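Example (one chain per record):
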Amino acid sequence: MILCVSLLLGWTAAGATTVELKGRAAVTGKILEDKKDQIIVDIGYTVMVIPKSQVVRMFDEDTKTAKAAKTVAPPSEAVAERGFYSASITPPPEQNVRELVNERGEAVVQVRTPAGLGSGFFINPDGFLITNFHVIEGETQISVEVYLQKNGQIERVLYKQVRIVALNKFADLALLRIEDKDAPKFSAVTLGDSDKLAVGDTVFAIGSPLGLERTVTEGIVSTKTRQFEGDLYLQTTAQINPGNSGGPLFNLRGEVIGVTNMKITFGEGLGFAIPIEAVKFFLNHRESYAYDNDNPSNPYHYLEPPSRTRKAVAP
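Predicted structure:
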């Protein structure tokens, strides 16, 4: 879908570019921004946001020369950058659990507090990671242990400068960031689509049950609609134990489709995970859940109203 943004920006014919689209349509205007998955074009009276999946080619209107091929992303691209995290456009091929653990395991971490520990996973290379709210609830002294694979060996690195970025107590989610000065770029996961799961699909979890880091458990999706206190959870036979909380639940395509957060203690094979769609909502609206140092017990951060509204209600 092509979106029109009502911004009245000036446009001149000089430097115009023609963007040919699928279905033999074309748009001519000034390229304002060329992103990885979309092009923003000023056509004079409005601005159009064009997905690159719809672009056939682009060329300068004056010289009729083609733009560099790198400006148009191939339609078969498997992963789209959402700015803050990566999500699949087209499902990657399935692999076995052993291969996926080797590829994705480095993105899974152990989250420690004075009160206990849990698991987590990086959503981008800049040190942002997801875990459960209950893993860090009431704590500000947080450390994260990362497991780096080097020459076939696992190197443990502990980072202690960890900032709470956002919290959602009611969804049991927390967004943290490693801010150590010597922190490198980290391996990150790709987020999948929990709505596309089917009962019986194979899934696996990586985490630190009872402090046993990098433990892998495999199972199936038992149901996608298990309800607790008004929220829906994924139920899985993959073993979930204390310490797994906040860790990723993967499908066989290597995508995270849930965040493990609880189990029924008096039964076996009764684990639960927060669907990844709830995690995406949390990340997309993270400013609304920003952690407030002035009121750390409040999981919500209320933004100032727009100035126009503020003036309207002023006495």
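Caption: Residues 239 and 268 are 8 Å apart (CA to CA).
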